[in-house]
Design a protein that fits this description.
This protein is of the alpha+beta class. It has a single domain (4-233), classed as q2cbj1_9rhob like domain (Jelly Rolls), CATH 2.60.120.620. It is 23% helix and 24% strand. The strands form 3 sheets. Strands 1, 2, 3, 4, 6, 7, 10 and 12 form an 8-stranded antiparallel β-sheet that branches. A 4-stranded antiparallel β-sheet has the order 5-11-8-9, with no helix packed on it. A two-stranded antiparallel ribbon has the order 13-14. The longest helix has 13 residues, at 57-69. It is globular and about 75 Å long. The two termini are 37 Å apart. The chain binds fe (ii) ion.
């Protein structure tokens, strides 16, 4: 299936693949998990990690361009509490973002993220609930808020949020910096500019106030654009009447139930072929 975005990109050159995205990230950050974890843990007001140029520059440019080509019907407006933001999580017409999602939901990336954030059994969300592209324009703001804590689609609890920004040449006087406030929602503690290629990762916190409350003051032809990923943990428990077991290959006709033979477990040498 060729999409509009694909056509747009193919005229120029081929798309950056998920594996290339991971190669770029890991060339910079693999084996630095310990340092990054320290940075994450001790950044106020609650564990946060902000890194510049987290993804290839060309990918940021492609994502920025793609966000302009995705047809209007794929976007929805978020308008709670006088905020305004356009969101797109249907990536039918977004081949570049599909590669990004593939990379950021991959086994390798999830394992890396688990180490940075000290979270085990971390899960991505294939439905992109509340996630995906986000776009805001001159005059738009996102009021200071705490995040939703439960993903109904996946039946999981929010653990981490990760945002990437793509607007080229974002100027500080245009505002739109992501602000983290104190636990009483009284004052700003730290903020990060929505600079192209920037990544901000933070831990879900019940009193984790954040947003970009000051209306964006960019030129009419510019916009603030990024992509959000939310990661989760599950508190699912196995049914005590059916405890966890491996695949069962034998059947006991008298008891009418499948069973296993312990001696058969284990891995044998690969066949020579
Ligand atoms: Fe939020």
């Amino acid at each position: 299936m060729e999409t509009l975005g694909q056509k747009h990109l193919d005229r120029e050159r081929r798309m950056i693949r998920d594996t290339e995205i991971l190669e770029y990230i890991f060339s910079k950050y693999k084996d630095k998990e310990r340092d990054l974890n320290e940075q994450y843990r001790y950044t106020p007001p609650y564990p946060t990690l902000a890194l510049d140029d987290f993804i290839p520059e060309q990918l940021s440019k492609d994502l920025y361009e793609e966000s302009k080509t995705i047809p209007k019907e794929y976007w929805t407006a978020f308008t709670r509490a006088n905020s305004y933001m356009e969101e797109c999580k249907d990536l039918t017409e977004a081949p570049v973002a599909r590669q990004l999602v593939s990379a950021f939901h991959s086994r390798e990336f999830m394992q890396w993220l688990s180490k940075i954030a000290d979270v085990q059994h971390l899960l991505p969300d294939p439905y992109l609930v509340g996630a995906g592209y986000m776009k805001s324009f001159k005059g738009d703001s996102l009021k200071i808020h705490t995040d939703f804590n439960w993903n109904e689609e996946c039946q999981t609890h929010r653990a981490l949020s990760l945002i990437l920004y793509f607007t080229p040449d974002w100027k500080p006087e245009w505002h739109g910096d992501l602000q983290f406030w104190d636990f009483e929602k009284k004052r700003k503690v730290v903020s990060y500019p929505p600079k192209m290629g920037n990544m901000v990762l933070w831990k879900y916190h019940k009193r984790g106030f954040h947003g970009h409350p000051n209306p964006i003051d960019c030129p009419e032809d510019k916009f603030r654009v990024g992509f959000r990923f939310f990661y989760y943990i599950s508190d699912s428990k196995h049914d005590w009447r059916d405890p966890p077991h491996k695949s069962l290959y034998w059947y006991d006709k008298e008891k009418n139930q499948p069973y296993h033979i312990d001696a058969e477990y284990g891995h044998k040498k690969l066949k020579d072929n």
